[in-house]
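Sanity check

After download, print the first record. It should look like this:
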Amino acid sequence: MACVGIVGGLGVGATVHYYEKITAACKARGIVPDLVITHADVDHGQGLVRAGKLDELADYLASFIERMARAGAEAAVLPAVTPHICIAQLLKRTRLPLINIVDPIGAELRARKLRRVALFGTVFTVEGGLWG
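Expected structure tokens:
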């Protein structure tokens, strides 16, 4: 099983949710998950988002992903939605593949031909262009 790195802290609830779901799914399959979790500071990350400093945010997140790579992670995920605002910049800064939660959610919405959905999140998530 591949070691997955989770950048936590940007949405502690989302991190806990991912952790619980991953461990439960692995247990149901009789395997032990191989995870590395780092903790980024939500206030620092949100400050960069508010200031429109997406390159700095990508650098900040990439530093956590690099730490997880050195710890053995083979892929990484950002469980919080808002940090995906810099996904294009982040993809250029990391050697690890990123599990991008925005693409599959967007694909599912398009497949279901849903034109209006309820979206709960930060103002950057709700009002931004993250969802096309």
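If your output differs, re-run the checksum step. Summary of this record's structure: The two ends are 33 Å apart (CA to CA).
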